[in-house]
Design goal:
Structural class of chain B: alpha/beta
Order of helices and strands of chain A: HHHHHHHHHHHHHH
Number of strands of chain B: 22
Helix content of chain B: 25-40%
Largest sheet of chain A: none
Shape of chain B: globular
Number of strands of chain A: 0
Shape of chain A: globular
Strand order of the largest sheet of chain B: 6-7-8-3-9-10
Number of helices of chain B: 18
Strand content of chain B: 15-25%
Number of helices of chain A: 14
CATH class of the largest domain in chain B: Alpha Beta
Largest sheet of chain B: 6 strands, mixed
Helix content of chain A: 55-70%
Radius of gyration of chain B: 25 Å
Largest interface: A-B, 44 and 77 residues
Oligomer: heterodimer
Number of domains of chain B: 2
Chain lengths: 374, 526
């Protein structure tokens, strides 16, 4: 078994190099932008570092904020492996969060660990249920999952708006938000970190990343999902059920997003349900996955990169008066650069394959006319 | 978006009949390397105007690479390409096309959702806003006058048959002024009749002064149309000469390096219990119109263990629907099927395999493999989901890899390792891997559909040998093929399908080319 052949190592090195290059170019763009608004890039780097990893308190915030992004990224990776594209993460995060909040507001009497677990499970169930609509529409009606999931995002936002004004409205000054969650329902934080900013839910990241890799590579379910994603017709003709695999993957991805919703509320800074708690985690999570090239392990790193951009921009704004929209520009730049790198890599891969064979290089469309093929 | 090339080019374009005494195409010392692999090793090739030149060789002999150099897809590392006396250095396919070189690919380069005329009008546009359809129609009419090739302008390509699509592809090249036409295995998808029509066309194109290069594995095709031949082996020229001065045996020997026995003798095997029984199977052509025209109309057949039943018939006689129905991908409206003596009426692919069935699908890429997954995963595509390779939903990759390595050795699958992505294997090795997957579980029934399509002589021989071994071990094979020679040489009995009806079953002794051909072309009774 030559799992680590030279080719593999070279490929890995090339991928790492690409990521480093993307980071370098992003930094360059950031420096240029800062110069144009008259801020010294060095000062900015100082402030950025201080805000993100300069103190253990801030590092805790950065890592904790990375968790929901990472969970959504896992959701994207599951559907990508199954060959499906669902983009309903914002909605699934919102509904998962609502479900978790609904449970959390009534779970204060339960002992801590149970309450936390119950809220997480409620989040998972909410996200899975919301994605289940997408899966059902696709499996039984053939509705494209990308369309239905996108539209359901809008519905979810309205559901949230109604909940925080209606059934779950609980703030004393009649603001559209819920009552504060009881401390017992929130994820406990590492006591060593001053300010208690590092929640225990960061432990979810390595566990779930390894778990997902294991499920995809070592179980029949993962195998079926990957085969269906790789060639849906072959999977069907080989006796698999690609529809079930795809629908399961969509539901699983919604479950991850729902858990992200619960994590945002119960391991975040603001222990109440309000409009806008989702804070673009749903779409940024997709970028996190793409930046990691759909690798669950890599997504742990890229999620931290994205969350540090978010956290760092706050300190840039407070210390140097740099507009926090700079973050959005940089996040956009990262996405564009990753796409460029991917396009370049694809072009390089396409030129010359070792042993050219006509049948493997060109697509072979099955004749559309019934019967002419045989 | 669509436009014909500059109309001025038509007037300056030299008509083939006025061609010079220079050869149409001359390659000298053409070498192409991919890393350490030499795909073409100092190849010399000369093709004259008005001749059909057969380019032969096994899979991986370098034919396709050479033609990709000629058509501008690859640039040679060394050597010269001279077209009609002018040295050329193509950087892009359009440049080769402008120089009059066109290729009819194995997999057509047509857009199925557009009409035939719209496909003709698709060309690198000089004026992006001009509608090229009128110009395309004029060119198509001109080509029809010159070559007799007629298209159906308003028909969608998706509705055209394979041979009609191929014809459109040829017209497309002629419309763009191609004078050197390269055909890459054009006979692979055609019925015997369609092939003969194409052969006549190739002769006619050559007689009109074009140069035709025919890439083929099949000796019968080569000897039917070609004037000259060149054999490539291992990337280098193994020999060249005139067809009139050579024999089939000589060419095959040059291709594979040794003589291969051509005719096989079937060991008599006493047939056992019925492996597959089909009674009065009726399948509609369009699944949404169960009462509409029928693809299969009351077909019955019986296949016993230790027997190969060949199903012959021209394309569209119901073979595809028969396979689809057996796998449960398509619904029948009437009829019963028994697999290994048990009723098989609740038909799904899973039930088919569970009942001891196996399928060597015709369209390997589409239904037979997952190109992005690794060889060991593809070779275990079904076994990996069952004991002993999977327990309670958890895979055992180590055992699966070692099973894959064993099968790779047994079935001579050549790959860098079992971890190589399936899509990176050559066509012949992919088919061997499929064969390993399907035959290794000792199925009671193997459905083999065009099992050697596009394979070279050696790989073909391997597939045939394995199917015959399976028969000798008491397995049953349903061989569905449009290659009459294949059906005749492998089958114990032959069932002829025409217009969705079983036109008759012949024993190997009764079956002659003429007899089977007659049944295949039986006119519809209505």
């Amino acid at each position: 078994m030559t799992l680590l052949s030279t080719a593999t190592i070279l490929g890995l090195a090339q991928r790492l190099l690409t990521q480093v290059a993307v980071a370098a170019v992003t930094l360059l763009i950031a420096a240029l932008l800062l110069l144009t608004i008259g801020v010294s890039p060095l000062d900015a780097a100082d402030a950025f570092w201080a805000g993100t990893f300069g103190s253990s308190t801030n590092a805790g915030t950065t890592l904790t904020q990375a968790v929901p992004l990472f969970l959504v990224a896992l959701g994207w990776i599951v559907t990508e492996k199954a060959g499906r594209i669902q983009v309903g993460f914002p909605g699934q995060v919102v509904i998962g969060g609502c479900a978790a909040a609904a449970v959390g507001l009534h779970a204060e009497s339960l002992p801590g660990p149970f309450a936390v677990l119950l809220c997480a499970v409620a989040g998972i169930a909410g996200g899975a249920m919301w994605a289940g609509i997408v899966a059902w529409l696709w499996a039984s009606r053939g509705v494209l999952e990308i369309v239905s999931s996108l539209l359901l995002n809008l519905v979810a936002v309205q559901v949230l708006a109604w909940l925080v004004r209606g059934p779950l409205q609980g703030s004393l000054d009649k603001q559209p938000q819920s009552a504060n969650f009881a401390p017992s329902t929130s994820w406990p934080a590492f006591p060593q970190i001053p300010g208690m900013t590092l929640s225990y839910d960061v432990l979810l990241a390595p566990v779930l990343a390894v778990g997902l890799v294991w499920v995809l590579s070592r179980t029949t379910f993962g195998f079926t999902v990957r085969a269906s994603g790789g060639n849906v017709t072959a999977a069907r003709w080989q006796g698999m059920d690609p529809v079930r695999a795809g629908a399961s993957a969509i539901v699983a991805s919604g479950a991850f997003a729902g858990l992200a919703g619960a994590a945002l509320l119960f391991a975040g800074a603001a222990p109440w349900l309000s409009e806008g708690f989702e804070a673009s985690v749903g779409f940024n999570g997709i970028a996190v996955a793409l930046l990691a090239r759909n690798s669950p392990i890599g997504a742990m790193v890229t999620a931290v990169v994205f969350s540090s951009l978010n956290v760092g921009s706050t300190s840039l704004q407070s210390l140097l008066d740099v507009p926090s929209t700079l973050t959005s520009v940089l996040q956009g730049a990262v996405i564009v650069l990753v796409l460029i790198a991917a396009a370049v890599a694809m072009r390089r891969r396409r030129t010359p394959p070792p042993v050219p064979e006509p049948s493997t290089l060109e697509a072979s469309p099955r004749p559309a006319t019934a019967g002419t093929g045989v | 978006m669509t436009s014909m090339p500059d109309p001025g080019a038509q007037t300056t374009r030299r008509s083939p009949s006025q061609s010079s005494t220079q050869p149409a195409l001359r390659l000298s010392g053409v070498t192409k390397r991919f890393g350490g692999f030499i795909a073409n090793d100092s190849v010399d090739l000369e093709v004259g105007w008005g001749e059909v030149h057969a380019l032969l060789g096994e899979n991986g002999a370098g034919k396709t690479t050479l033609m990709r150099i000629v058509t501008g897809l690859y640039q040679p590392d060394d050597g010269d390409v001279v077209v009609d006396g002018t040295p050329v250095d193509f950087r892009r396919p359009e440049q080769a096309l402008r120089a009059g070189i066109g290729m009819v690919h194995q997999h057509f380069t047509l857009v199925p959702t557009l009409t035939e005329l719209e496909n003709l009008a698709l060309a690198p546009a000089a004026f992006p806003v001009r509608d090229g359809r009128r110009a395309a129609l004029e060119r198509a009419e001109q080509v029809e006058r010159e070559s007799g090739l007629r298209i159906t302008p308003d028909r969608r390509v998706a509705d055209a048959s394979i041979s009609e699509r191929q014809r459109l592809e040829i017209v497309k090249l002629l419309c763009r002024g191609a004078r050197i036409l390269i055909f890459d295995e054009p006979g692979a998808a055609l019925t015997p009749e369609e092939w003969e029509e194409l052969a006549r066309l190739m002769r006619r194109l050559a007689d009109d002064g074009h140069a035709v290069i025919l890439i083929s594995h099949k000796m019968s095709e080569v000897f039917a149309v070609a004037d000259q031949w060149t054999v490539l082996r291992g990337g280098a020229v193994a020999g060249t000469g005139a067809i009139a001065d050579t024999t089939r045996e000589r060419l095959v020997e040059l291709m594979v390096g040794a003589s291969i026995e051509t005719r096989r003798v079937l060991e008599p095997v006493s047939p056992g219990a019925p492996a597959l029984v089909i009674r009065d199977l009726t399948v509609p052509r369009d699944p949404d119109q169960p009462r509409g025209p029928k693809a299969l109309d009351g077909v019955s057949l019986q296949l016993r263990a230790g027997e190969i039943l060949g199903v012959a018939g021209v394309a569209g006689s119901g073979q595809a629907e028969l396979v689809d129905t057996l796998l449960g991908v398509r619904r029948s409206t009437a009829g019963r099927i028994e697999l290994a003596g048990k009723p098989y009426d609740d038909r799904t692919p899973a039930a088919f395999y569970a009942a001891g069935g196996a399928l060597i699908a015709e369209d390997r890429h589409h239904v037979g493999m997952v190109g992005a997954m690794r060889l060991w995963e593809n070779i275990n595509l079904r076994t990996l989901r069952q004991r002993p390779l999977a327990r309670r939903g958890v895979l055992d990759p180590r055992a699966a890899r070692s099973r894959a390595r064993k099968l790779m050795a047994d079935y001579e699958v050549r790959a860098t390792s079992e971890n190589q992505p399936m899509g990176r294997l050559s066509g012949g090795n992919q088919q061997k891997a499929v064969l390993a997957r399907e035959l290794a579980t000792s199925p009671s029934l193997v459905v083999a559909v065009q099992p050697v399509r596009g394979l070279d002589v050696r790989a073909t021989e391997f597939v045939y040998r394995r199917l015959l071994e399976h028969r000798a071990q008491g397995g049953a094979v349903l061989l569905i093929s449009m290659d009459l020679d294949e059906v005749l040489s492998l089958s114990d009995r032959i069932l002829v399908l025409a217009h969705g009806r079983a036109q008759g079953a012949l024993t190997a002794a009764e079956a002659t080319r003429a007899r089977v051909g007659e049944l295949m072309t039986t006119q519809e009774a209505s």
